[in-house]
Design goal:
Elements: E1 30-36, H1 53-56, H2 65-82, E2 90-97, H3 105-118, E3 121-131, H4 138-147, E4 151-157, H5 161-166, H6 175-185, E5 189-196, H7 203-215, E6 220-225, H8 233-239, H9 248-264, E7 268-271, E8 274-276, H10 284-290, E9 294-298, E10 303-306, E11 309-313, H11 317-326, E12 331-336, H12 339-350, E13 357-358, H13 364-367, H14 370-375, H15 381-385, E14 388-389, H16 393-397, H17 399-406
Parallel strand pairs: 1-2, 1-9, 2-3, 3-4, 4-5, 5-6
Antiparallel strand pairs: 6-8, 7-8, 10-11, 11-12, 13-14
Helix pairs in contact: 2-3, 3-4, 7-9
């Protein structure tokens, strides 16, 4: 089952925000995330806030979900207006899940229409949906493109049947080139998501997945190491000895292989797990998370952030539906980050991206760790001299070490 929501401060039922969110608001981009919490099958490795039809129970309707999410989007627009925030058009929209494309294409189009009506879309706005390869066809993708979607991110995960079976994925490898072709014909940018380090996966299997993905010539590619989350089916299988636990050394070897192969194919890393063909095809929505911009997130369990205030919605679709029907905020709790917490988060996140961290963010005692990080080949030396903290390939593999040494949590 999905993980438990964190505790926090009480969230006001009217969604009101403190005046502190106004500080610097005009300099921050604004995006919207819509969480669609439905999946046809629960993958064994997944602890996201998603539900199959059998898990929903009463009080939640997949058919009525688009209308509920649209209601929250209008609620959000009102909250931001009443908070005195400047008018900002939406720079990025991301539909995630779950599997957003389990809903009819018209439902996604209608939710995007509500975003457009309430806030307006900025010129050149990026509008993405996640999709499983077997949840769309050519007509579905054309409908999305006609509605204003610009990008689709397919959960490919692997091109090897045995690996897909271990992950409980329902599509076949042969489906991948087909859906990519349909998306490109519709005029959509394409991202492919891969997972490496699945129990039983060999280096040759991973090479096969990379070959298939890169042969599709995607605009963007993500490659994530499999993390075993407590409470998942896969965690239970490992505990019972049915499958082997992930091997950290193999993960590192797979990452290095991926980075080399992806670079040879003409894509460039810009975040530890993400590569794009050009700067324009980076996921601008995800970059907004890593650089501390503002976003309203609609849907069960969705996490929003506005000016250092972060809140998270109630998790279960039935509880969410009830809040929406009552006309009150679906937020479960929230927290207001102080200046030091925001600075620490900035160090944590911006040392993961190719643009790097401005070294002026570091305190003098933290900057003393920089020469050691250069000597350890964890950050780029010339970039550090210019005032940017940018991880090397080794630094990407040891990202936690970079952060710990900068913040003084380990010997520098």
């Amino acid at each position: 089952m999905p993980s438990i929501l964190p505790e926090g401060d009480p969230a006001p039922s009217d969604g009101s925000l403190p005046t502190s969110v106004l500080d610097g608001a005009s300099d921050r981009a604004f995006g919207v995330y819509v969480h669609v919490p439905y999946c046809r099958v629960r993958c064994g490795y997944c602890d996201f806030n998603t539900y199959t039809a059998s898990e929903l129970g009463g009080g939640a309707s997949q058919a009525g979900y688009a209308a509920e999410a649209a209601t929250e989007l209008s609620f959000g627009a009102r909250v931001l207006r009443e908070s005195g925030l400047p008018e900002r058009r939406v720079s990025t929209v991301f539909f995630g899940g779950g599997t957003p494309t389990l809903l009819p294409a018209g439902d996604l189009a209608s939710m995007l229409g509500r975003i457009r009506d309430e806030w307006g879309l900025a010129a050149g706005a990026e509008v993405t949906t996640e999709a499983n390869p077997d949840s769309v066809d050519a007509a579905y993708l054309r409908t999305l493109a006609d509605a204003g979607f610009t990008r689709v991110s397919f959960g490919m995960q692997s091109a090897v049947p045995s690996v897909l079976a271990t992950l409980d994925r329902t599509h076949t490898p042969e489906r991948i080139p087909l859906v990519v072709e349909w998306a490109k014909e519709a005029g959509l940018q394409v991202s492919l998501d891969l997972i490496y380090g699945t129990p039983g996966e060999r280096i040759g299997d991973w090479e096969r997945s990379l070959d298939v993905a890169l042969a599709c010539e995607p605009d963007h590619l993500s490659a994530y190491a499999l993390i075993i989350e407590q409470g998942t089916k896969l965690a239970a299988q490992i505990k019972r000895g049915q499958v082997a636990a992930p091997d950290d050394d193999l993960h590192a070897e797979m990452y290095e292989l991926a980075d080399a192969r992806i670079a040879d194919a003409g894509l460039h890393w810009y975040e530890i797990s993400n590569w794009s063909r050009t700067p324009e095809t980076r996921s601008r929505h995800n970059l907004s998370y890593w650089t501390g911009e503002d976003w309203w997130a609609a849907g069960p369990g969705a996490h929003s952030h506005i000016g250092g205030v972060r809140w998270w919605n109630v998790k279960h679709p039935a509880a969410y539906s009830q809040r929406i029907a009552e006309g009150i905020s679906p937020a479960h709790a929230r927290e207001t980050l102080d200046a030091e917490s925001r600075r620490t988060e900035r160090i944590l996140l911006e040392t993961r991206i190719s643009d790097g961290l401005d070294a002026s963010v570091l305190r003098p005692e933290e900057r003393r760790a920089v020469p050691g990080l250069i000597a350890s080949e964890l950050i780029d030396g010339p970039a550090a001299i210019r005032g940017r903290i940018i991880p090397t390939l080794r630094g990407r593999l040891l990202a936690d070490t970079v952060v710990h040494r900068l913040l003084g949590s380990a010997d520098g």
